[in-house]
Amino acid sequence: MISAPRRYSAAFSPEIIAEIERAADEGLYRIRGFGTLRPLPSFDDLVLLGASISRYSLEGYRERCATNVTLGTRFAKKPIELQIPITIAGMSFGALGANAKRALGRGASAVGTSTTTGDGGMSEEERAESKILVYQVLPSRYGFDPEHLRACEGIEIVVGQGAKPGGGGMLLGQKITERVAEMRTLPAGIDQRSACRHPDWTGPDDLTIKITELREATDWEKPVFVKIGSARPRYDVQLAVKAGADVVVLDGMQGGTGATQEVFIEHAGIPSLPALRQAVEALDELGMHRKVQLVISGGIRSGADVAKALAMGADAVSIGTAALVALGCNRAIHVGDYAALGTEPGACHHCHTGRCPVGIATQDPALETRLDVAEGARRIRNFLTVLTMEAQTLARACGKSHLHNLEPQDLAALTLEAAAMAGVPLAGTDWIPGRNGC
Amino acid sequence: MIEIDLAQSSVRELNQRLHRIGPGDNEHHWHVVNPNGAHAIAVGLTAPVHIEIRGHVGYYCAGMNAVATVVVDGHAGTGLAENIMSGLVRVRGNAAQSAAASGRGGLVVIEGDASARCGISMKGVTIVVGGSVGHMSAFMGQSGALVICGDAGHDLGDSIYEADIFVGGKIASLGADCVEKEMTPADFDRVAALLGCAQIAADAERFRHYGSARRLYNFRIDHAAEY
Predict the structure, then answer these.
(1) Total number of domains in chain A
(2) Residues of B in contact with A199 (CB under 8 A)
(3) What's the pLDDT at B223?
(4) Tens digits of residue pLDDT in A42-62
(5) Domain range for residue B132?
(6) CB of A140 within 8 Å of any CB in chain B?
(7) Which of A153, A182, B76, B86 could be stapled to B95 by a disulfide with Cβ–Cβ 3.0 to 4.6 Å?
(8) Does ipTM exceed 0.85?
(9) Which domain holds residue A161?
(10) Which residues of chain B have pLDDT under 50?
(11) How many domains does chain B have?
């Protein structure tokens, strides 16, 4: 007798059934860290068109391809000068341990780029290590200190985050140690759920006045960034520009988080690819492209991603998860500790537990010692260098003497979806779905 | 006494002069006239100056104040003394929404009424309101004290942490996890002292005390209906 193969429901897959059973058993939504796990249209769906006869390339090892970028040229007396167009995204002390923040700062400073604070304020370690530090102004205002505002090189008003546009931050009680609690003026051990809206402004007109206040408090010296999660980037970017932003930071759906509801991570916002295109179009409509700098984050993992993002019109990119992976996130060491969390190297997204096996997303002193700051800084420096060299390699192949000379005409899409989302032709055609009535 | 006429000079010029005051300087007393509702007057101060503003001010007056004393002889717009660190900010009239938002220290006195979200996200500031406050006041209040001599609007103290609220009048409704607490002799003394510091005449004996039930500090499904 021939046995029929088992058939599983597509709608009620084993994973879905397991999640329904878990929800019914626990009565809580699933909270986790990292970022979206499902496949999404991404920069992998684009290719760069290297030069041949119609355009000629630059010598890969001999001709210069510059990488510097200036952020904050619109109003700030002291714009930020970066040697590479790759920054470290905002990640809180609290979500990350002090060693991780130190390593990120030291590594980024070694290659002339910036790091960003996060919910919970500025730690001494981060300020000491980061030569260029962007200070976030978040809805929670945890630890917000005007002395830190004066001590930073740039100010970033966080309106939203790609992993949870419309939602506030979250740090579960197991990571609220005495030091974190003191910085945030909260009782130790509580589940800290940040506000999703700022306490002292609502709407774009208020934001204009808020930005003015921050400029007045710092004598108009520092560039003001506005960070938004990618939901309606066309409108949000234009409103941020109207409000007076020097720099817009756009965080796509693939952006990571230390902890939030999984339903948020997987089902809110739009991917970085269409968000970036809409943001550039929004700036173009206002005549502000390149006058207000655009930083894209969410799903940047390689120099190819950097080159494609810049070709689409970004002035710089920002990395979070990729930087943590470079530090050692998900590395196959201390495998037993991954198992204790119910996971394994390569599949760990348990930042929210505070039991990070590699000592990055933890406040546990014993676990934190697993991250050596000097070695971590070396790895960050190396990774940022590789990203830059890869982007330069592709830019030279396209005949560009500066990364910012990359342009949409250097791109083609491998899928219909990517062509429509990125606004570049499907490879081998002149067709951009959605353009010219097609 | 230094007088600045904002009909003649800009807020930026005023703020930059105030920021340049050093420890040995003798520019202690300032009068600002013709504010005409301008925003961001006297923000980010770090020197122990006394500033009297004669007229109404716009958003964020005395924002992020440290050490200084700022007196507004008029009404104040949104975000008065937001994120105040220390010092004193007094408004002789009314204040719009989000007064003393996320304030970490110091004393904010509003002799008239305060609108919605007074003391939202407060982190150590003391706020004394001579009149009434609007809805969602002390929302997510983490630390410090909000003293309301008049009435409070809906959802007072919603999602409050460790801040204390003292109310002399009526309350439209309490927010999630905010409950009435015992008014101890120490609390009566504390309210009397705060009223004295604020130079607000009110009888401490009529105040009641509100704070967190601490049921929402760690998420439990049994309390989901609170939200």
Answers:
(1) 1
(2) 82, 98, 101-102, 117, 120-121, 139
(3) 63
(4) 999 999 999 999 989 999 888
(5) 2-226
(6) yes
(7) B76
(8) yes
(9) 29-420
(10) none
(11) 1
Q: Does the distance separating the beta carbons of A216 and B11 come in below 8 Å? A: yes
Residue A311, token pair as written in the block: 């070709």
Nearest to B75 by CA among B89, B55, B60: B55
Question: What CA–CA distances, in Å, run from A264 to A135, A267, A268, B78?
Answer: 25, 5, 5, 32
**Partners of residue B78 in chain A, C-beta under 8 Å:** 200-201, 206, 209
Interface test with B, best of A212, A216, A221 (most B CBs within 10 A): A216
Nearest CA in chain A to B217: A190
Report angle CA B115, B118, B122 to the nearest 5 degrees. Answer: 170
The rounded percent of chain A whose pLDDT value lies above 70 is: 100
Instruction: Write out the DSSP string of B22-44.
Output: -TT----EEEEE--TT-SSTT-S
Given a cut of 80, whether residue A269 has pLDDT beyond it is yes
Nearest to B43 among A187, A201, A216 (CB): A216
Q: Is-contact A281 A260, C-beta < 8 A?
A: no
Tell me the CATH number at B77.
2.160.20.60
Looking at beta carbons, which residues of chain A come within 8 Å of B217?
Answer: 173, 187, 189-191
Q: What is the pLDDT of residue A3?
A: 86
Question: How big is the A-B interface in CB pairs under 8 Å?
Answer: 103
Q: Does residue A260 lie within any of the structural domains?
A: yes
The proportion of chain A whose per-residue pLDDT surpasses 90, expressed as a percent, equals: 90
CA distance B124 to chain A (A): 8
Residue A54's alpha-carbon distances to A401, A427, B11, B13, in angstroms, are: 17, 17, 56, 56
Does A431 fall in a domain?
Answer: no
Among chain A residues, CA nearest to B97: A200
A44 dihedral zone (left: phi>0; alpha: psi -120 to 50; beta): alpha
Whether residue B60 and residue A185 make contact (CB cut-off 8 A), yes or no, is: no
Identify whether A436 is part of a domain. no
In chain A, which residues have their Cβ closer than 8 Å to the Cβ of B140? 195
